[in-house]
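Q: Family 1 glycosylhydrolase, please. Structure only.
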Amino acid sequence: MNADFLWGGAIAANQVEGAWKDDGKGESISDHITAGTKTSPRRFTKEVREGEHYPSHHAIDFYHHYKEDIALFGQMGFQVLRLSIAWTRIFPMGDEEKPNQKGLDFYHAVFAECKKWNIRPLVTLSHYEMPYHLCQAYGGWQNRKVIDFFLRYCRTVFTEYQDEVDLWLTFNEMNTLVSRFGTLLGAGILPEDGADMFGLGRMQTPETKEEMQARFQALHHQFVASAKAVALAHEINPKNRVGCMLSAAGVYPYTCSPDDMLEAQWQMKKSNWFCGDVCIRGAYPYYMERFFEENAIAIVSKTEDADILKKGCVDFFSFSYYTSRCVTRNAEVQKTAGNMMLGVQNPYLKASEWGWIIDPKGLRYLLNAIYDRYQIPVMLVENGLGAVDQLTEDGCIHDDYRIAYLKAHIEQMKEAMKDGVDLIGYTPWGCIDLVSASTGEMKKRYGFIYVDLDNEGKGSGKRIKKDSFYWYQKCIASHGEEL
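A: Structure for Family 1 glycosylhydrolase:
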């Protein structure tokens, strides 16, 4: 890999910062989601309840350990750190006129620490941290007023950090709104009290037309907000580069039946290309017209929206990749979960402890498909293995399984680059152990750095370098040659 390739790691505010009430921070949607397990879902509560464990409230306390943590990233040789700004630290309610100065100061301090270690920040503007007040009072992203609140936040941070940040992402995994998984965390549309966060229990039941309409209306407002944010970022600092961020996965037909081939083709369009086409090509793609018509979805838009989308195309495509999936139109074949996606078991591949299919070659396939379609720079901003790590008696973590996972994926990244894909960076997910988004657990660990906390948030909080820390350090130093 060439010297310009950016090596690093990725975290998100709601999964690492903690300090949920410190220095004027407001409540985010994540602050109302309880912990869960592999078999028990995380749940949404309208009020924060005594006796419930909300992982975002304390997380790994990056808010008070950021200097120590960034120093560890620097020791690994990170050239880029993907992180998110918590919207509620800047505008605690979301609809205020003026920002919270202590929130602004915190990220100045974080970016200064990154600069000390020659780490370039890649900042996600909205990563499942929507102000809870905007969900309660406005109905989340289904309300067009939220666009203006988001743009006020964007203008504030683009201006405030224009000398510290020039790489931005708008919405984390925007395409989760295409499925019911994104209704709460992505769209900010509140379910009934006590509902499971991703609606996994409802996935096998038909969605009402009203629910689907609200979700796609919310997505439209995010498209407009994203495009306006891109234009604003370019206006405030011409050096700014802004990307979209999607949860991507290659889709395979379960059999060579024409029905399964057509289903795989449709799922690639719907789950991977729809949001990418709008953000990169600046218009709704033709194939969604039939879907909207058959599902009685009528997007309410303004006449200027088409022009806004055209003028706000992103500069690069970024995505998360954990798994691929097989699909079939045979309703009798049992489905399995992945990263907010459902598919059927691929008989040629193994799964992680949490049932996510492991498919390194699927990454090469997907990188080629993305670059073939869009011909703009591509960045892999999430990829990793959630696993249970064991501390040995001498205080070490021998995570050879994680090294093997990452090594196999980097090898396929290199193959894709030989194929001609313009892949510009790699930030593996959870470069330090953090709260799992899907289950709220700490024991589902991704990091190169172990954090001594259990699922209830109990422990010393001590940071310990895993074997993968030293492996990734060598990988970066050798530009990916020493794997």
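A: Brief note, in case it's useful. The mean pLDDT is 95.
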